[in-house]
Amino acid sequence: MTTLVVLSTKDAIVMGCDSLSSVTRNLVDPYSLVEYFDGENEWRLKLDEDGRPLLNNWYNIYEKTEIIPYSNMTHVSKIFSLSPLPIGVLTTGVASIGQRTIKSLISEFKSSNNLRYKNGKYNRIKTVSSKLLKFLHKIYCEEFLTNAIVRPPLELIIGGYDSESQIPKIFRIKVHENIVEDTIIDFGMVFGGQMDEIQRIVFGTNSANKARIAERSG
Q: 196-203 and 207-217 are packed helices; what angle lies between their axes, rounded to 10 degrees?
C-alpha cells in the first residue's frame, strides 16, 4: 500500500512517499464462487446443458480474486536520486524482482552508462525514462514471463530537469505494461500508488469518481 506524490513548481520539484510496503496475495472469497454451485443439490458443481461443469478452468477462479495485503514491511526505500543528474525516481508495486530489490536494480542502472554526459549535457528525462524502462523490463520479463497472467504491477514516477530547460518534466513508467507516459504539462501535482484518499484531500474527489461523473454526463 503505497502513496507517491510529486509536486512540480516553477522553483523546484518536490517528491514524497511513505516507507511502508505491503506483501499481497491474490485471494478469492468463497462466496464469490457461489454461482458455480447448486444449492439444491448438496452444493455440487453446476453443469451446463452438455453436462460439463460451469467451473471448468483455473481462469474462472482467478478472475474472482482480489489483491489483498497480508503482511507489511517497514522502512522500505521507494524514493531514489539519479545524481549527478537532477532527476528523482519514485516506485510503487513489487519491491523486488526475483532475489533483487528495486533499490539494487536502480543502483545498477545508475552505475551503467545510461546517465552519462555528452558534450557537457546529460540525457533528457524522457531518454532516461526510456532507458530505465528498457533496463527494468528485460529483468522483469525474465522473472515473470512464464506466468504472464499474474504479472505484478511495477510503476515508477520519474521527474526532474533537462540540461537545456528550466521547466520540470515528470513521466510515469509502467514496467508491467512496457510503456512510458506523459503526466502533467509544466506545473502541478502527480500521484501514484494508492492515491484515492490523498486526491480527495487535495481535489475534493479522486480520478475514479471524476471518470464516473464524466461518463454519466456524456
A: 70
